[in-house]
Design a protein that fits this description.
Helix content is about 40%, strand content about 20%. It has helices spanning about 1-20, 50-65, 95-105, 120-130, 175-185, 200-215, 235-245, 260-270, 285-290, 310-325, 330-350, 360-365; strands at about 35-40, 70, 75-80, 85, 90, 110-115, 135, 165-170, 190-195, 220-225, 250, 275, 300, 370-375, 375-380, 390-400, 400-410.
């Protein structure tokens, strides 16, 4: 009798353990907790005009859900990291490396929103990849980060030492943007171009894509030069451009690399032709630095600018303006979408009976995203980590503001 009683109590104890630990179905009874999502963006230097609005948008997204997911069981702790330094006044490779190692070391960090610069992504991805820490970019557009045959010879394999993709993005890539820019150049009536770049990963890459696309369309390439971002002026180069007399000057680069001074010098020597730049300069920082020389510059943007947003995205823009008393910069929308993607992935991780501290489960959920109904429209993440969103816009700077002109690449 005693042994039967002991067996009875053992069965009760086992049932309690079963209910507490596994819910008896083989899946954990999700206890909840707190996980940290970080953003990694240049918050020092001229990019702050753009990146602060991305941080604001990410905060808005998490606040819209009271920082809770999975029926309120899990709390999202959001932290904004700076990958720039005062010494460089822009993103800094050493800071980016240090940040990445901190994210890996802190096991409560389960997702990274970033980076802003593709060059920074090339440093961060291989460091966090072995831990399957997922990274979602609202701004990187260099195709070599994800697509074979679209960048350098050893891309993208060199970024993924464990052979598993952990990097995704919610914005179209440069291979789409570069070809759209070349076609727009032709549509604007230009027959010849002079191509410049800032000699960085992103700028040089997008200039090369543009050059190939322009040549394929029969445009005459009159010159190709790289600039030094620390130069005090570009008068010699500007005179060379004036002598070549192209219909259009294309600059591949971003606003942090002295682009404003370059455009001012090109205009000051009397060049009257067209100037076109990529989305790395789709911000107020370029307009501010170029001053009156920015007037009339054509800008390619991988997405839709704030002033043309409608529906849920348009409502988001109005809510943003009310909350922050200013207009969001172009990439802000994609910061919000990145946070939406993370929250949706978290929900699916919980539904599968897994913990949000399981980085592998979070990464797998992000890459399993299908038809997510975001404020930018429905999209999926493909096997490479790229979004199915492909909208590209043509803008022009008029009276100190970028204005929508047309949709490109359709």
């Amino acid at each position: 009798m005693k042994s039967m009683r002991q067996l009875y109590y053992l069965l009760i104890a086992a049932s309690i353990v079963c209910l507490t630990i596994t819910s008896c179905s083989g899946a954990p009874d999700n206890p909840g907790g707190v996980v940290t999502v970080v953003s990694d963006l240049p918050m020092t230097g001229s990019s702050l005009i753009q990146t602060q609005t991305i941080v604001n948008a990410i905060s808005m997204a998490f606040e819209s859900n009271n920082h809770k997911v999975c029926g309120g069981k899990w709390t999202i702790n959001y932290r904004s990291y700076d990958d720039a330094s005062a010494a460089l006044g822009k993103w800094d490779p050493e800071v980016t490396d240090r940040n990445a190692r901190e994210y890996v070391a802190n096991t409560n960090f389960v997702a990274v929103i970033g980076t802003f610069n593709s060059d920074a992504a090339a440093i961060m991805i291989p460091i966090i990849n072995p831990e399957q820490l997922v990274m979602i970019s609202p701004a990187n557009t260099w195709p070599g980060l994800t697509k074979a045959g679209k960048g350098e010879k050893d891309e993208p394999e060199k970024y993924y030492p464990n052979g598993i993709r952990n990097y995704a993005r919610v914005i179209p890539t440069d291979d789409l943007q570069g070809s759209a820019a070349a076609q727009w150049t032709k549509d604007l009536g230009a027959h010849s171009v002079f191509i410049l770049d800032d000699q960085e990963f992103y700028g040089k890459g997008i200039a090369e894509i543009y050059q190939r696309s322009a040549a394929n369309l029969g445009l005459k390439i009159l010159g190709r030069e790289g600039i030094h971002r620390t130069a005090t002026d570009y008068k010699t180069l500007a005179n060379k451009i004036k002598e070549a007399n192209p219909d259009l000057v294309y600059f591949g680069g971003n606003s942090q690399n002295n682009a404003g001074q370059l455009v001012k010098d090109i205009r000051r020597i009397g060049y009257k032709g067209l100037i076109m730049v990529p989305n790395g300069m789709a911000d107020d920082a370029f307009i501010k630095s170029a001053e009156e020389a920015a007037e009339g510059v054509y800008v390619i943007f991988s997405g839709i600018p704030p002033e043309k947003l409608t529906g849920k995205a348009g409502q988001w823009r109005e809510d943003y303006k009310v909350k922050f008393k200013t207009e969001p910069q172009p990439f802000a929308l994609y910061g919000y979408v990145s946070a939406q993607l993370i929250m949706d992935s978290f929900e699916r991780v919980c539904k599968a009976g897994k913990l949000l501290t399981d980085r592998k489960a979070v990464r797998e959920a992000v890459f399993a995203t299908k038809d997510l109904d975001s404020i930018a429209g429905k999209f999926s993440i493909d096997a490479n980590g790229d979004t199915t969103l492909t909208t590209i816009s043509g803008l022009q700077i008029r009276k100190g503001k970028t204005e929508f002109v047309t949709l490109l690449g359709r």
